[in-house]
């Protein structure tokens, strides 16, 4: 350890030649100096504080062991370093500035806390004190520095600050209430959580006595002076002794500042201080948890009630090893098993289902996969003479719940219903006109076209679909293409149906007029998916209309407006004159003087009046003729549709008169309305298919499939949504009984793209699917892929075993169906034959100028069209009823009933029927349009079968039963014989041939109700005692409006 030598210069003021005289004194001084140096050396080396002497160039020239240990360098290494080398960069500039001030005498001592860089690059915190060493002349010699290692203290300070910051962050951000009270009971901390839970602001709480705040929060029922005094006494005692108010968390109900109640879990803890005790409390709002617990208890009670009252039979099974034991069942289960279910309790599923070995594996599958499974099940041992639909659901690690629904009757009826639907589909396919689905693209690419396409265009459906031979857009007359495009675009933009009339060029180059009714099909998010509609050939009708317009022009020129109604307006006198037909159209006699135009306009509806006024003034002022259809209110109050035209007569460029005519076009307009209505009925018939359809590209990759594919193959949603087709293929392979044969057939068809196939596939669960596959080629021979069609024929195959039993019933139904098919076919042809006949007569009458007969011909054509439309509407309503309903939405039954009564109001009034209805209808989830159809049909049925009742009445209402609302329509009419009750909802059933109808209405109602998950039945005490139709809907909210 090197110590710098002391200054050996002579003491100031002594001459050199007197040194010998002072030898003794010098020797004494030298001894003292030596002793002093020895003491300094011992202090220097033994000091626990680092000591370093620094030369003017800031290089260390003496360092003690403590400083060596603090820096991690050896003594030799330190003596080669400078202050700059080991000072942290953040502190170097300040250090140099202070050293400069020390050297120049501005500072005498420099002290600071700073960081050094140790040899291992770690950081050392040091408390530095620096002073200068000067000689007797005051000349700076070196710096002496003392460094105390304060790294541990700094780390402790940082940790304390971090802990305090975390504590403060917790207090400020926690949703719990944190309250601190000082030794005098004054609130010194009141966080945001305290404000939220108590409703008392922080500034209102700080500095107050805690017992005063507590008094305010005590519920009124406990706020007596004795109780409040005890609370204050307990708090004061806790502050005085440090004894906790309570030694474990307590549940406390308090009153917030706004009067609402809050339930908290509170912990109170004392804190010892120099002046006594403080205490803190942490409270957590558990109001929601307490309410949830209460709701859970109530939910358990409700669940048990619903379990017992559920109309479906429910069996609860407990898992035991690889079997299940029946531990509970509801009332419906006892009814389903004819009282045997209680005897089954405690028995194993393997014993109860021994006769049917396929049910127990499915229950095990449900238990193992934690996913519901379902199947149809019949067992003479467990359910005598019944077939049920079984749904098993995983409940908990030891429980499985099995629902059973009796479908015995449904199974019997499904076979007959399938055949009926097939015949109905054939009948609709043979209707004149074309049903279509197309893309909204420039060529109106047809995705589907019915067989009627050939009669209209000359092309088969296969020619026109996917533009195989021709695009439908290319068939539209070039002059009409913009009109069609604009009409569709406007309707689609407003989500409205469209009605168009335009020309097409058929395959044989003839021009046909067609009428099109259609609308856009949209996804749930409003995206346009496609267009659907109906196209009919109206060439004959259009030609008749064109001929009629030519006749009108001739009659206008010759003033022969006798049956059309002619009028003349004199501009100068502002007088108008009418012909007799105009008076008849208005429903007034000739005593009425129209005088001015304003009196004429009084007969029109406000909307039509505004249009006519504008057109009439434009005719007079600008010489612009007009031709307008408008609504006119006759003198008897009936509204009719008229076509009124005006043509200016000019003299020297000025309009002096206006000739015009008016024609009652109500029947034609109603026919147009009927056509639009028919389109609305047809627009959804291609929405769904009973077959599963899958389209793949030439490589076998899925392009398109409908939901029926997933249903038939029982493919989970997560697999169908997976873009990797391999998962779906694996699932299908696992479902087939012979995967190798299935795969071989698929590979064969893919290797032979021109071949088709029609066979059956058996699944592991017993399902049998018809499989049809055909290639898809474009018009140019391009191979686009293959279509696969799957149809579940399981029931058909199973039904063959019981076909002999049902043949008698089916024979009777087939006779009735044949009779109905013949009737419908005859009724469909009759109006068409009549229309053609009257069109021929109309053409002759128009050529002869016989307008009287022409009007009669038009009326007869309209009546025939109405008959045709009525029959088609009925058939279409039946075909789509019960197949599908729109996405269920909340529907007000009160509004549905009111709409039905308003629609049937004239008939109710005409028949003198008194209507009574309930006040409180529930809101249900369903398809409003279908439910409107149900209520209208039931009330209309009551009107038709009222009979000769002297005081006819209809009651519409609802009973709020424990199992849910039950709706009814009751009448005091003709009633129903008991033997006829089972057939009331049968298709084509008509018990009274003298009352008009098709026998389809109540069958349609039943389909709609069942599509909503409900059921419908009828009660009657016999003929002349009226009838009551009851129905339920699943998912009906319990609260009435």
Pick out its properties.
single chain, 1041 residues, alpha+beta, Beta-Lactamase, five-stranded antiparallel beta sheet, 37 strands
Give the SSE layout:
Blueprint: H1 23-46, E1 50-54, E2 60-63, H2 65-71, H3 75-78, H4 83-86, H5 89-103, E3 109-117, E4 123-134, E5 140-149, H6 151-173, E6 177-181, E7 187-190, H7 192-198, H8 202-205, H9 210-217, H10 225-241, E8 250-255, E9 261-273, E10 276-285, H11 287-309, E11 313-320, E12 323-329, H12 331-336, H13 341-344, H14 349-352, H15 359-369, E13 373-379, E14 383-396, E15 399-406, H16 408-429, E16 434-438, E17 446-449, H17 452-457, H18 461-464, H19 472-475, H20 481-493, E18 498-505, E19 511-522, E20 528-537, H21 539-558, E21 566-570, E22 575-578, H22 580-586, H23 597-601, H24 606-622, E23 626-633, E24 639-651, E25 654-664, H25 666-682, E26 692-696, E27 702-705, H26 707-713, H27 717-720, H28 725-735, H29 739-751, E28 757-762, E29 768-777, E30 783-792, H30 794-799, H31 803-848, H32 851-880, E31 889-892, H33 893-903, H34 905-911, E32 914-917, E33 923-926, H35 928-944, E34 953-961, E35 964-971, H36 1001-1011, E36 1016-1019, E37 1027-1031
Parallel strand pairs: 32-34
Antiparallel strand pairs: 1-2, 1-5, 3-4, 4-5, 6-7, 6-10, 8-9, 9-10, 11-12, 11-15, 13-14, 14-15, 16-17, 16-20, 18-19, 19-20, 21-22, 21-25, 23-24, 24-25, 26-27, 26-30, 28-29, 29-30, 31-33, 34-35, 35-37, 36-37
């Amino acid at each position: 350890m090197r110590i710098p030598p002391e200054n050996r210069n002579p003491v100031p003021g002594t001459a050199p030649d007197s040194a010998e005289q002072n030898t003794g004194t010098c020797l004494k001084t030298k001894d003292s100096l030596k002793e002093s140096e020895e003491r300094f050396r011992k202090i220097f080396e033994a000091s626990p504080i680092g000591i370093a002497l620094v030369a003017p160039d800031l290089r260390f020239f003496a360092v003690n062991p403590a400083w060596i240990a603090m820096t991690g360098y050896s003594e030799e290494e330190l003596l080669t370093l400078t202050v700059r080398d080991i000072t942290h960069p953040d502190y170097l500039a300040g250090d140099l500035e202070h050293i400069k001030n020390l050297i120049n005498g501005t500072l005498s001592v420099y002290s600071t806390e700073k960081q050094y860089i140790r040899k291992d690059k770690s950081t050392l915190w040091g408390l530095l004190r620096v002073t200068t060493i000067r000689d007797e002349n005051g000349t700076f010699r070196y710096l002496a520095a003392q460094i105390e290692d304060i790294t541990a203290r700094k780390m402790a300070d940082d940790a304390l600050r971090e802990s305090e910051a975390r504590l403060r962050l917790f207090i400020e951000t926690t949703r719990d209430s944190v309250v601190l009270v000082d030794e005098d009971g004054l609130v010194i901390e009141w966080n945001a959580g305290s404000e939220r839970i108590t409703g008392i602001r922080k500034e209102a709480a700080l500095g107050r006595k805690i017992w005063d705040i507590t008094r305010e929060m005590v519920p009124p029922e406990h706020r007596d002076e004795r109780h409040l005094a005890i609370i204050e006494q307990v708090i004061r005692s806790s502050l005085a002794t440090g004894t906790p108010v309570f030694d474990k968390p307590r549940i406390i109900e308090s009153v917030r500042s706004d009067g609402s109640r809050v339930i908290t879990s509170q912990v109170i803890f004392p804190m010892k201080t120099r002046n006594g005790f403080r205490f803190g409390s942490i409270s957590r709002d558990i109001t929601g948890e307490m309410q949830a617990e209460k709701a859970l208890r109530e939910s358990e009670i409700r669940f048990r009630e619903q379990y017992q009252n559920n109309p479906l039979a429910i069996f609860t099974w407990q898992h035991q090893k690889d079997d299940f034991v029946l531990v509970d069942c509801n009332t419906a289960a006892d009814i389903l098993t004819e009282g045997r279910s209680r005897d089954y309790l405690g028995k194993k599923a393997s014993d109860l289902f021994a006769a049917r070995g396929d049910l127990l594996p499915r229950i095990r599958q449900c238990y193992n996969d934690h996913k519901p499974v379902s199947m149809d099940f019949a067992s003479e041992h467990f359910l005598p003479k019944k077939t049920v639909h079984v749904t098993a659901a995983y409940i908990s690690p030891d429980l499985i719940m099995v629902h059973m629904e009796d479908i015995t009757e449904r199974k019997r009826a499904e076979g007959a219903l399938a055949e009926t639907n097939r015949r109905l589909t054939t009948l609709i396919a043979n209707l004149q006109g074309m049903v279509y689905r197309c893309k909204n693209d420039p060529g109106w690419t047809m995705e589907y076209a019915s067989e009627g396409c050939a009669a209209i265009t000359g092309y088969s459906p296969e020619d026109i679909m996917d533009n195989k031979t021709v695009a439908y857009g290319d068939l539209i007359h070039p002059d009409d293409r913009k009109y069609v495009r604009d009409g569709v675009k406007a309707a689609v933009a407003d989500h409205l149906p469209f009605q168009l009339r335009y020309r097409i060029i058929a395959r044989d180059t003839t021009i046909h007029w067609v009428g099109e009714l259609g609308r856009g099909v949209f996804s749930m998010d409003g995206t346009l998916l496609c267009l659907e509609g109906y196209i009919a050939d109206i060439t004959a009708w259009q030609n008749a209309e064109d001929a009629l317009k030519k006749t009108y022009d001739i009659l206008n020129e010759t003033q022969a407006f006798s049956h059309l109604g002619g009028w003349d307006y004199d501009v100068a006198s502002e007088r108008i004159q009418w012909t007799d037909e105009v008076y008849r159209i208005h429903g007034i006699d000739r005593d009425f003087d129209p005088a001015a135009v304003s009196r004429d306009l009084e007969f029109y509806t406000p909307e039509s009046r505004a249009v006519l006024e504008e057109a009439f003034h434009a005719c007079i002022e600008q010489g612009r003729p007009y031709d307008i259809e408008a609504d006119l209110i006759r003198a008897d109050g009936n509204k009719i549709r008229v076509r009124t035209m005006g043509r200016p007569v000019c003299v020297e460029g000025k309009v002096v008169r206006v000739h015009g005519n008016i024609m009652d076009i109500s029947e034609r307009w109603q026919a147009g309305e009927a056509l639009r209505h028919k389109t609305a009925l047809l627009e959804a018939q291609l929405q769904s298919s009973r077959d599963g359809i899958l389209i793949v590209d030439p490589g076998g990759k899925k392009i398109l499939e409908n939901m029926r594919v997933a249903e038939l193959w029982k493919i989970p949603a997560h697999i169908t949504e997976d873009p990797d087709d391999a998962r779906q293929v694996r699932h299908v392979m696992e479902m087939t009984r012979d995967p190798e044969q299935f795969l071989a057939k698929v590979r064969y068809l893919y290797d032979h793209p021109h071949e088709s196939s029609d066979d059956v596939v058996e699944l592991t669960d017993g399902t049998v699917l018809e499989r049809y596959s055909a290639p898809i080629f474009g018009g140019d021979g391009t191979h686009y892929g293959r279509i696969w069609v799957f149809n579940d024929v399981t029931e058909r195959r199973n039904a063959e075993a019981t076909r002999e039993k049902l043949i008698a019933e089916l024979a009777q139904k087939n006779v009735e169906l044949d009779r109905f098919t013949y009737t419908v076919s005859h009724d469909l042809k009759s109006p068409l034959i009549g229309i053609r006949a009257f069109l021929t007569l109309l053409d002759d009458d128009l050529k002869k100028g016989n307008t009287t007969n022409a009007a009669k011909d038009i009326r007869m054509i309209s009546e025939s069209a109405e008959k045709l439309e009525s029959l088609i509407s009925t058939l279409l309503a039946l075909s789509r009823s019960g197949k599908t309903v729109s996405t269920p939405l909340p529907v007000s039954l009160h509004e549905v009933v009111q709409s039905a009564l308003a629609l049937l109001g004239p008939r109710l009034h005409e028949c003198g029927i008194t209507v009574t209805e309930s006040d409180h209808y529930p809101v249900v989830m369903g398809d409003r349009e279908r439910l409107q159809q149900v209520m209208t049909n039931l009330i209309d049925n009551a009107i038709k079968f009222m009979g000769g009742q002297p005081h006819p009445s209809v009651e519409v209402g609802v009973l709020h039963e424990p199992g849910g609302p039950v709706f009814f329509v009751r009448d005091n009419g003709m009633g129903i014989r008991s033997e006829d009750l089972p057939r009331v909802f049968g298709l084509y059933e008509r018990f009274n041939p003298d009352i008009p109808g098709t026998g389809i209405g109540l069958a349609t109602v039943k389909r709609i109700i069942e599509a909503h998950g409900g059921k419908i039945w009828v009660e009657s005490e016999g003929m002349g005692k009226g009838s009551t139709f009851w129905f339920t809907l699943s998912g009906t909210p319990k609260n009435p409006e």
